[in-house]
Write a structure and sequence with these properties.
The structure holds two protein chains of two kinds. By secondary structure, chain A is an all-alpha fold. In chain A, helix 5 runs antiparallel to helix 6 and helix 11 crosses helix 14. Chain B is an alpha/beta fold. Chain B is globular. The relative contact order of chain B is 0.19. The chains are: A mainly alpha, B alpha/beta. Chains A and B meet through helix 9 and helix 10 of A and strand 5 of B.
Chain lengths: ~290, ~250
């Protein structure tokens, strides 16, 4: 009975297996990126980037219909353009990165909506906005897995400068020139993972599988490595449970995944070991030293 | 060969000078105090030396040192104390020169890191997140990192601000130890007593150099009064500096 509900869908249907594989790949790559976004106080930057991708995806859609390769390529180009332009403007002028990014992503969003309204077929576009992880074909799954692999490799390369740049940027500047490239590479990884996510979750929810697990992890550990592991597990569990929920009920898959993650987040906020609300309300007697 | 050579250096922000026409040199192994009122350009000068600020005019020669041979302790470090990193890992970043992007932290390196943490008196703090440290403990951690950087030139910007006397004594001992090892040390300071009793050479800075030389000769009431009177005015419509033209005409 329980087996039928929890494992049955995946043994029975290939599209469920593909969806599960995709969501695990997304978790492995997206959650660590999300942790860094959160720690660098860039959570909303991720959100902004998700909007910035839209015109690129729309152009891809315009040129070749609902072709995920075209839309991915378009999304990557638009995302990179916005991320790099915003980064360059912020680094070469006094403007803060968030202000600079806000400008670019608003322009990008306006452009995207314009392009969309020219073409004007709304149903397919719904797919772009909210994704459909259950309709994933083999090719798309391979693209997702490839992007996830690239993300983990690049993250391994830039991990050390990225950490030092997050803690003490001035120090990194005095010992190395790796800070700037590491930051740009990180922004690129954010874009890749957003594009990766929108095939499954859509442009609007893609950032959810990155930021929510990071938020969850933050309530359970003070250690960066542990945080990243917890975030990955939280994302994968949300993905799996969301798929099951979506299969058994009529909730669409993307929102189901994000809603499960939200439930985990609420539990973490309440009962988390590090700064959870219950822990703060009932801290126990103070210690001796 | 001087460790540092200033050649008509003007440093500043947005064309407005904060350090104006500084000439002179620092001998290798010197222990130099940079003093002057707030706004005198001490921090600006140090930022120029470590290369995060490019001179508006003139040049700073590092006497063959690479910029990585410099350890810099900024005044208000832009450190994100909420970032989940342990004291051990944070101090370990001081080994960057040796490890770079991928170099492993082997047994020898671990020993060095533990040694540095011990020599600033923080034994047992290795696994504490930096966010849980007090101001003085954090300053000790930063000194431990400078220690690991093993740099020929050490630049400290007001390292003893808001630090209690015990910590100051401990950290000052480290500074003197570095001096003893023949490293060049520059420190921006406010405590005249400390400068008088521990630093051999002093630069009194008030946008331009007021006096520079052996501490006993330079640290006079007259020089300090001149430094204090230095105008802090920031003139938005200041004309382009003519001193260079005068220089070239004289030459």
């Amino acid at each position: 009975m329980l087996h039928d509900a929890l494992i049955g869908p995946f043994t029975e249907f290939e599209f469920m297996r593909r969806a599960l594989a995709a969501v695990i790949a997304l978790s492995l790559a997206g959650a660590p990126i999300g942790v860094f976004l959160m720690l660098r106080r860039m959570s909303l930057v991720g959100d902004a980037m998700a909007h910035a991708i839209l015109p690129g995806a729309a152009v891809g859609f315009l040129l070749s219909g609902l072709n995920l390769f075209a839309m991915t390529a378009g999304g990557l180009i638009a995302g990179f353009a916005v991320a790099i332009l915003a980064g360059v403007v912020a680094r070469s002028t006094g403007l803060k990165e968030d202000a600079s990014l806000a400008t670019f992503y608003l322009a990008s969003l306006a452009l995207g909506v314009t392009i969309v309204s020219i073409k004007g077929t709304n149903i397919d576009l719904l797919h772009v906005l909210f994704g459909n992880i259950l309709a994933m074909d083999d090719q798309t799954l391979l693209v997702v897995a490839f992007n996830a692999t690239v993300t983990l490799l690049v993250l391994a390369v830039i991990y050390r400068p990225l950490v030092i740049e997050s803690v003490d940027p001035l120090f990194l500047r005095t010992v190395s020139r790796a800070g700037g490239p590491a930051h740009l590479a990180f922004l690129a990884l954010v874009v890749i993972n957003l594009v990766n996510g929108f095939q499954a979750l859509g442009t609007l929810l893609a950032v959810g599988l990155m930021i929510l697990p990071a938020g969850i992890a933050r309530f359970w550990s003070r250690d960066l490595t542990a945080m990243i592991c917890i975030a990955v597990v939280a994302a994968a569990v949300s993905g799996y449970a969301g798929l099951v929920l979506s299969f058994q009920t009529r909730v669409p898959s993307g929102p189901a995944i994000i809603l499960v993650a939200t439930m985990l987040y609420i539990v973490s906020v309440l009962f988390g070991r590090v700064g959870g609300i219950v822990r703060q309300l009932f801290p126990g007697r103070h210690l001796e030293a | 060969m001087a460790a540092l050579h200033f050649h008509n250096v003007t440093l500043g922000y947005d064309r407005h000078p904060a350090v104006h026409h500084l000439n002179g040199e620092v001998a290798p192994g010197a222990l130099v105090a940079v003093i002057g009122p707030n706004g005198a350009g001490k921090s600006t000068l140090l930022r120029g030396i470590v290369g995060i600020l490019r001179p508006l005019d003139g040049s700073i020669h590092l006497g063959g040192l690479d910029s990585r041979d410099i350890a810099y302790l900024p005044q208000s470090a832009e450190i994100d104390r909420s970032f989940p990193i342990s004291v051990f890992d944070f101090v370990g970043t001081g080994l960057w020169r040796g490890t770079g992007l991928f170099g492993g932290i082997g047994k020898a390196a671990r020993g060095k890191i533990l040694g540095a943490i011990a020599s600033v008196g923080l034994n047992g703090f290795e696994n504490r997140p930096i966010g849980t440290l007090s101001g003085g403990q954090m300053q000790r951690v930063l000194f431990a990192r400078v220690l690991l950087q093993d740099a020929r030139l050490i630049v400290l910007d007001e390292p003893f601000n808001a630090i209690d006397s015990k910590t100051t004594t401990d950290l000052l001992a480290l500074v003197k130890h570095w001096h003893g090892e023949g490293r060049t040390v520059l420190a921006a300071l406010h405590d005249m007593e400390m400068v008088r009793s521990h630093f051999t050479e002093t630069l009194v800075l008030a946008r331009g150099p007021v006096a520079w030389g052996p501490t006993a000769e330079v640290l006079t009431p007259e020089n300090l009064v001149v430094a204090m009177r230095m105008c802090e005015a920031f003139d938005d419509s200041a004309a382009a500096c003519a001193a260079d033209d005068a220089h070239s005409r004289a030459a």
